[in-house]
Amino acid sequence: MRILIAEDAPSDRMLLRFHLEKLGHQVIEVSDGEQLVSFFFSHAEEVDLLVVDLNMPHKSGVQAVNEIRAFQGSYDANWVPIIILSGSESDDDVLRCIEAGADDYLVKPIQHKVLAAKLMAMTRLDEMRQKLMAMNARLEALSTTDYLTNLPNRRAFEKNLQDEMAKAGRYGQSLCVAVFDIDHFKQVNDTYGHEGGDVVLKELSRRLVSEKRAGDQFGRIGGEEFGLCLPHTDLENALIACERYRQLLSKKPFLYDEYSIDLTVSVGLCRFTTETDQLELIKGADQALYQAKHAGRDCVVVLKKDAA
Ligand SMILES: [Mg+2]
Predict the structure, then answer these.
(1) pLDDT tens digits, residue range 41-78?
(2) 179/207 same-domain check
(3) Could you tell me the pTM of the whole model?
C-alpha cells in the first residue's frame, strides 16, 4: 500500500517509516495537519491509507480527519482508511477520533505486530470496499444497458433524453427525437427463430452505432423498436440523418447462418419545442412512426402537427 503518514515528531516519523517499509509498504511523509490536508486534497488518488498523529501543530489529527471526511462521500473513489496515532489512552480521545471519521486508533509507542495487524485489517476493509464499488458500477451498467445489443435500454435512453431536453430548453438549441421500428419483424422471428431475430437486432445496432454521427444517441426502447436522440439538430438535418440511417439498414442484407435477410425500417421523427414534455415528444415520434407504417413502411415521416 501507499501510506501517507502525518506526524510532527521526527523520531516517531522515522520509526513509523521504518516499521511500514519493513512491512513492504511505500511511505510518504508530512509533518503537520495542514500539510496532510493539502497534500491529500491534491494527491488523493496516490494514497491508499492515512496514518495520522493526533497532536500536531497548525491542525490536529481530528481536525484534519474531519476536513478530509467532509470532502468525500463513503463511496468516493478517493476514500481511504485512516488510522490515528496517539500517546493518549483516553477513551474520550478514541471516541472523538472515530466519530471524526477515523477507522482505527493506535496507541504509541508503536508495536510492530500490532501495526502489522491493523494494516492487515485496513487492507481487508479497502479490498471489500473496492469490490463493492466494482459491483455497484457493474449493476449500474446492467440496469442501463440492453443485454442483447449493448445499447442503452429504455430507462437509460429516456434519462438521456431528459438531460438533452433540459439542455436544449436552457440554451435554446434544436433537438429532435426519432423512433425506428423494424418492418415485419415478426416474420423474421417466425422464419428464422428467435436466434435469427437476435442476430438481426445485434447487427442492426452495430451498424447504427458504428455509422452514427457524433452526439447522436441510440437506445433499444422495445423489442424491435429503437429510439434516437439527435441533439443540436434541426428538423431538416434530423431528416437527412434518419434517411441515412434507414438506408444503412436496407441497402445491405443481414446474414444469419446461410440465410440472407432483407430488412427495412420505418422511422417517425419529431422536433422538440419548449412546450413539449418527454412523454409528448416520444408520443409525437410514435405518431409519426404510425404514419410511416401507413405510408407503406421503409420511410421516414416527420410528425405533421395537424395530424397529432
Ligand atoms: Mg504529535
Answers:
(1) 999 889 999 999 999 999 999 999 999 998 876 556 67
(2) yes
(3) 0.66
